[in-house]
Structures are given as C-alpha cells and as structure tokens.
Amino acid sequence: MQNYFTIGMCGRFDQRLDNGSRMSREVQVRFCESLGVRFPGATHRVVLVIGPKSMAERIKREVSHFLSSELKIELSNEKTVITNPLTNRCRFLGYDIVKGKDYTQIVKAKNGRKVRSVTGVLQLLVPGDVIREKIRPFQRHGKPIHRSDRVNTPVEGLIAQYNNEIRGLANYYCMAANVARQIYRFPYDHYYSLVKTVGLKFKLSVRKTLRKYGVDVKRKHGTGTRRILGVVHETKNGPKQLAYFNASIRRIKRPHGERIAEYEAATNHESELIRRLSYGQCELCGSRSEPMNLEVHHIKKVKDLRTKYEGRGQPNWVKTMIKIRRTSLVVCVCCHSSVHRQRFSA
Fold first, then answer.
1. CB 229 within 8 A of CB 216
2. Cα–Cα distance between 92 and 89 in angstroms, integer?
3. Burial of 233 (0-12, 13-18, 19+ CB in 10 A)
C-alpha cells in the first residue's frame, strides 16, 4: 500500500476582487467597499490517499464529477496529478512534500524501542530551485553583488528591507526538514549584497563600510561579539540599534502556538466600520436593511467639509459626518445617490 497524492486546481470565480475596489494593483491589497463581493476560496488542494493508485484515480473522478455537477467548476487535468511521494516530490505552496527513506537514522521512541525516525514519514522540504531563484538577484557568477535599484534608499530603510526578506524566507520555510542545509548560502550572499549596496551609496569599500556602519552584536554560538552592518538611531524611548538579521535559521517542528495566540489576541478586534455595518441601519435616514445592501461613503478629511460649506447651508450628510467626527458614513443606496448628487451640485 502506497501513499498517493492528488493535487487539484479548480476554476476561479468569475467575480474579480477589483469590481468596485479602490485598490487593484496587487491581490493582497485589493478590497471592495461593497459587502456583496466575496473573496474566492482557495483553489489548490492536496488529497492524501493511503491505498493503491486505482483508489486515487477513483477519488479524482468522483471529485471532478462533484465539482462539475454541484459547483459548476471544472477540474484542470493538466494541473491535477497523481504521484507517489516515495519516488516523486510533490510541490505545494512552495514546499516539496516527500516520503522519507533513510535506514541509518535510528532514535529511541517514548516507549524505549528503537525506531527509524525518517523512513515512511512525510516530510516538508525546501526546493533547491526556489532558493536559487531567491538568491539570484543578490549574486553574480557565484559572488554577492550590490543592488543598484536600492542605492537611493536610506541606510535604515535598506537594513529593514533586507531584514524583512531574509526573516520572511526563514519563517516561511522554518518547518522544512532541510531548511538549515538549503538556506545556508542565502544569508551570506544576502548580507554582503547589503554591505556592497551601502558601500556603493557612499563610495566605500566593504571594509570601510563595516568600519563606518558596523555595530557589535552577540554571537549566535559561544561568547563574545561580532561586528555586522547596522545603525543606531534615536527614538522616543532613547537610542535603538538596528542591525542585520543575526538569528539562527533552524527547523521548527511545530509552529509557535503561544505566539500565534498572542498575535491573534492582539489583532483580532472588530473594526468600528464593520461594527457600524453590522447594525444594518442607514446613518442618514435611519432605515433598516441587510448589511449587504448598505454602502459606505468616504471622504479624506472632516475639516475639508467645514471649509467647503463655510458660510452656506450644510447638507444633512455633512452635519452628520461632522457630528460623529468620522470620514466614513454608512448609508443606504438611495441616500448614497443623494449624497453624490448634492456633492457634485455644490
């Protein structure tokens, strides 16, 4: 009995995210003012099957029939494959999923018995081609190079940008079994690309750049300090040190549950605009309606309303926005049309 994977990609929704949107340059920043626009669900799936290949093929046919008959979505046969993770790697969300096979690594289980820790275990791996593609902009002929497109950025901004890149890469692949072995080359080229970029900005060599913009940080292993690129800048709480990423890139078997819970507790708060929409009431005429039928009128600044309508009668919607001191107003469709007619006539 083998483990087979079925990877599927279904057709996307016809309704795009930028219908009625205020931002449409990138998917992650698109949002829509109307609650009627729904975000499409995830279109990639991985199905794990313990059984023969014929069982995986049967499940694929059943899934395809369900999608076409119930959801009116077609399953892409080109992007839906069946593979054995023991012999072929499965690429999903930037990870390679494989079934381990190593008879040399033996560990002692909780019950005291010796077991092979890798054989038959599904593993997440960092693809080598992904890392090579990530490191390509920072090296040439196997050596780190400067980034001319970033020369005009301030030193603090450069360090923060490089830190975000390497920290994001390390955090995303932290659960891969080979993360330390695959990404070991990236920090070196990435770091000296930053040093050479700062050196190009001020016409300095690598040694002079580290002498001028270097700070002493604690070593990853052992005692003592080492000098890396960084700056000390003033904040409200006093001087603060900003240095290049100096943490170890190691595998984490389980996500930091406590940190995730703390993050969710800090960020999982309902915004005021969503709460006002959930009331289902127009803030101008007071009519009740479903939240999906309400719209939101936006302005830039409340003080602009006082300046624009100074010395003449203020419409009802202007008085309401000045009273509640908000740049948004939840209104029904009729009131929203009336607001725009009054605004353009004024």
1. no
2. 10
3. exposed
CA 186, CA 173: separation in Å to the nearest integer? 13
**What is the 3 state secondary structure string of the chain?**
CCEEEEEEEECCCCCCCCCCEEECCCHHHCEECCCCCCCCCCCEEEEEEECCHHHHHHHHHHHHHHHHHHHCCCECCCCCEEECCCCCCEEECCEEEEECCCCCCEEECCCCCEEECCCCCEEEECCHHHHHHHHHHHEECCEECCCHHHCCCCHHHHHHHHHHHHHHHHHHCCCCCCHHHHCCHHHHHHHHHHHHHHHHHHCCCHHHHHHHHEEEEECCCCCCEEEEEEEEEEECCEEEEEECCCCCCCCCCCCCHHHHHHHHHHHCCCCHHHHHHHCCECCCCCCECCHHHCEEEECCCHHHHHHHCCCCCCCHHHHHHHHHCCCEEEECHHHHHHHHHHHHHC
pTM for the model stands at: 0.59
Highest mean pLDDT among 56-60, 103-107, 232-236: 56-60
Per DSSP, what are the bridge partners of residue 141?
Answer: none
Instruction: Report angle CA 92, 117, 109 to the nearest 5 degrees.
Output: 130
Q: Which two tokens stand for residue 309?
A: 């309508």
pLDDT digits (tens, 9 = 90+) for 81-118: 888 877 888 888 888 888 877 666 676 777 777 766 66
Cα angle value 232/238/244 (rounded, 5°): 30
Q: Quick check: 82 and 56 in contact, CB under 8 A?
A: yes
- What's residue 299's pLDDT? 87
CA 136 vs CA 35, 75, 133, 171, 197: distances in Å? 42, 35, 5, 20, 15
* Of residues 58, 54, 49, the one with CA closest to residue 3: 49
